[in-house]
What does this fold into?
Amino acid sequence: MSYDVAIRSSKDDPRRLEELYRSAQADGADAEFAKAITACWQEAPENHLYAAWYFRLQPIQERQTEQRAVDWKAAIPIALVAGVICAILSLPALDYADGVPYVALTGSRVGGAAIIAFLAIAGHDRRAVGSTLAALLVT
It folds into this structure.
C-alpha cells in the first residue's frame, strides 16, 4: 500500500494519521510509512502535523539507513576453528570401516554450529553461545 495519498488526505487529521500508522505497523510497513511522512514533510514543512510525525519517526528512518557491517573479529576465528575441526574429522584414521569419512556425517553439524556461534556472538546473545557449545559437545 502506498501511504503517500492516504497521508496527504489526512494532513489535518491526527486521529487518521495515527490509525494509518498503526495499520502500517500491523502490516510491518512502518518504514514505508516513515518514508512517506518524510516526503510529505519535505513538501509541506509548514504543516505541524507532518513535522511532529517526521520527528517522531526519526529513529525508524535512522535504523533503515544504518549500514550493517560484518563482525569480522568474530567471523574469522569461528571459521578457522570450524575449518580445523573439519580437517581433523577428515583424517583417514577417523574413517569408518567401509571407508566413509567421519566428516561426511558430522561436517554439516560443525558448520551449523559455527553459523549459530557467529550469529550469537554478532548479536551479543550469551544464551545462544552456550547452546552452540552444547551442540558442539553433543556432536
